[in-house]
Amino acid sequence: MASSDEIPVLHRVSARLHNRFPEAEPDRLRRVVESAYHELDGARVRDFVEILVEREAAAALSHRDA
Question: pLDDT tens digits, residue range 54-65?
Answer without folding.
Answer: 999 999 999 865
